Amino acid sequence: MGNQSVERFRPTSGRVTGSIGLVVALAVVVIGIFDREAFGPPVVAAALVIAVLVWASTLRPRVSVTEECLVLRNMLDTVSIPLASIEEVAVRQVLAVRVGRRRYVSPAVGRSWRQTIKSNKSERAGDVALASYPDFVEQRIRQRCDDERAKRGIERYSDEQVALAADVQRRPAWFEIAALAVASVTFVVTLFL
Question: Considering the entire predicted model, what is its pTM?
């Protein structure tokens, strides 16, 4: 993976509120550590759990494409999907791809509920609307999948494409899992002290 070019897509939501939530939660933790009368241990531990959850759910998720894979970095795992194995791509409220009989999603790129409804109405009415960023991401991933299948000589919905589904790799986000476990155990322990 050393010299592979990577195309990264910017997240479409949650960055501002996630950043604010993380700062507030960490501020409660820091204040509680240095001023024990301001917040008790259960409040500090709960703020730590919230900080980890905010980080993992709103700030960690990303979508990128390497030369051969779509990479979905989610809350507690990272999934690498061979581009040639992807049968369908859709961006609604989340990005969803279908590989064989499995569906993989990422909250990093999506439309708001209002954008989804508006997009559905436009499609039914046959309107041609200006492409939004989620539309761009969907089209770009679809194009990269088509290019990779053409390069490998694999037909869409073929047995070769289905066989590539076995090459999907899921890697746990050990740091986030460990941080969440430690914060949760700490919270439970502080409730009984």
Answer: 0.85
Q: Which residues of 100-133 are buried (b: 16+ CB within 10 A; e: fewer)?
A: eeeebbbbbbbbeeebeeebeeeeeeeeeeeeee
Number of domains in the chain: 2
Ranges under pLDDT 70 in the chain: 1-4, 115-130
Q: Does residue 5 form part of some domain? A: no
Residues 75 and 167 in one domain: yes
Is residue 82 located within the same domain as residue 159?
A: yes
- The per-residue pLDDT for 1 is 43
Average pLDDT, the chain: 90
Residue type, 142: R
131 lies in some domain = yes
**Residue 118 sits in which domain range?**
61-172
In this structure, are 147 and 65 located in the same domain? yes
Question: What is the pLDDT, as a whole number, of residue 14?
Answer: 84
